[in-house]
């Protein structure tokens, strides 16, 4: 599976170079003009080669609800999600494939799947997603989504005394489950890693967090959680801990250079300093944050404080696409309205770096994320003759600031080609499309019972 | 050119209906289940039919600069634009075609082209764009971009005494030019309308505005301008008029039910009341407003005040795409972070209405903008089996909240089919692609002289 891409544009410090790129045994072996062809020759003319992006936060099975959930903030949206989440392994398999296809076709080579688990079939859910990802060939970071408190505990109480039903599974059982998943599926060298992934402070006890820290240390696993996605969660943290969520997570030792935190919308300057000090990574999910009205994460502040930031699509029930280029575009432009000094704005090249090496850093994968000799060949080749990238100006400007359509020519993960001439080669995408169609129906008359139960309390406590 | 679309989904008050749609002589003749086939039968199964959207503000020739201009606010961005604007009619022709193609493939059937004019070849520029639009068949509202003050006058003076070079063309000559354009090209019944379109208060004298009002009244033309796109323009209006720009435009009689105003980011509540009272239309350009850091237009307030709002892409140098579905998605979701009460958020169905009938209203075209018997057949048929619209949930939710790719199956304007099976039928798009490629080059080492001249003053007066 060796190959040599000839005469391809790559980003240089200032502008672009036209080079050949040799890939040998899954590793970038040389980047120079006029190299000998090793393995297959790939025509790189009028194409741009970039390191693969990382979709650093999604929930693949939410694909079954995309386009479906009304205009709700997170807390009510979650109630809908719980009521209508897919409970069937076949659907988990299909949506994992669908997520991977959209990732490839928007420049991604890795996905962090904060995967909802079917109650009673938790290991099977993980096994199913892992098998889909291995089949299609994407580099997968499977982060089984766990919690040990019930949904209503995730909404602040305000002045009201409330009790919550206990969660259906004990904390210890959940930790055993994750340990078993690690034993069965954690194979980084084969492209599948398991992460510990307590959903967030809003639905997890300290016992669950510390159990996850222990597993993370013992098995060298990355850590992944939601963090302060909404104003309501900020209130809840104060009720629960008497301090900010970030201070609490630092105190219990959860934050580290292999901890990535999705959203991070409602952090104080002191919280930001803690993220910088602990070398934690922020995963910015701009479209989900807009869709759910969560707020605009202070991404320019993170960057100024030296916090590593990368991008995620978030699940398709809150975005509702899995297009990384869209998340990168909006996730960089959105912040121009938060700082009048344009010298602080994120440039297209910086956005590319955040989406590639920023993502790799957050997953503790120094061997990924840039076009450098010796790194793993997770690569994406873009066709710059696509109508959406014309006329010719600055290739990276066009790719990040435009709305590229049908632009991904080839994708390789670990040197293996998974997309060629714009088509996924490892699965039959037309068959997938047919299956997604067959397993669903036009449905617009659904009504969530749980939303009905919690909406009045939510509006009261949020002052609506 | 009569046709009947069979078994197609259309939006009903609550949910969807499956119907047949007959189009006779360019008019929607019947919408009911099980109609007789008149003319060509079109298979509407698993497809959604919507009225065509209107791209209510763009500048087609900016396509030559897309992806190219650095992260600048409007005032510096404009300097780059002026330095590198295309000066050649062939390019005007190609970018008009390119803009129309992207409009069709993202659900649009009409475009408002606030068209930059090549100095000395003003009428030829208009003639060229008009001929491109007639060739491809899009419904075109050509709004020749005029001003009568020079660029530096568009930046507030602050405490500094400044003089500005006079504009190269006299106000009267500009008005004569527009009148000649109206005589030659204003043919609404053939799908081409000319608008009076002074660029905005920042670069236009009252004499230009009142001359445009007079032409608008005499020839029954719509009026189109930029309005308060940036904080700098708000400052400038206070310097220039001693009141808000909106108050001034009302006083001189520019605002009316056929006036559409692009951007409207920096309006006060009193200004919003004036827009409502005068029945003016706001054209929201969310992506450009983010890209240039202009701010978030208070769209939810406009809607609550009863102001008509529709969407524009803005020119491709400040977006940098001409995809209407992207503008509609971001233009509706963006405002969820501006109002904590989700009951005020724009729903996907409301967004569709804003983009279709809202656009028609702003152009004084009561015969457009909805699927209603008797209206003109400007229609778009979406293929709901596209991977990006699966699994099946709510078709309009998927279309507006997702990132649809390759979803437009057919487009008709005035009953004439312009896209069939996803391909434009009136021009050779591959040839267009080749021409766009040939007329451009990878270029990343440009330096704008004008930016150098005005940047220090801009930073000073904006307190940077």
Structure description:
- Two copies of one chain form a homodimer.
- With 464 residues, chain A is of the alpha/beta class.
- Chain A folds into two domains: 3-50 and 393-429, Roll (Urease, subunit C, domain 1); 51-362, Metal-dependent hydrolases (TIM Barrel, Alpha-Beta Barrel), CATH 3.20.20.
- Helix content of chain A is 36%, strand content 20%.
- Chain A is built from 15 helices and 17 strands.
- Chain A has helices spanning 74-84, 89-104, 122-136, 171-185, 206-219, 231-241, 245-251, 269-278, 286-291, 299-304, 324-333, 348-362, 395-401, 429-438, 449-461; strands at residues 3-11, 16-24, 27-32, 40-43, 47-51, 53-58, 108-115, 139-144, 192-194, 223-227, 259-263, 281-284, 308-311, 379-383, 408-413, 416-420, 423-424.
- In chain A, the strands form four sheets. A five-stranded antiparallel sheet of chain A has the order 5-14-15-16-17, with helices on one face.
- The longest helix of chain A is centred in the first third of the chain and has 16 residues, at 89-104.
- Chain A is globular and about 70 Å long.
- The model of chain A has no long low-confidence stretch (mean pLDDT 96).
List its salient traits.
about 475 residues; homodimer; about 35% helix; TIM Barrel; 2 domains; 5-stranded antiparallel beta sheet; about 20% strand; alpha/beta; 4-stranded mixed beta sheet; Urease, subunit C, domain 1
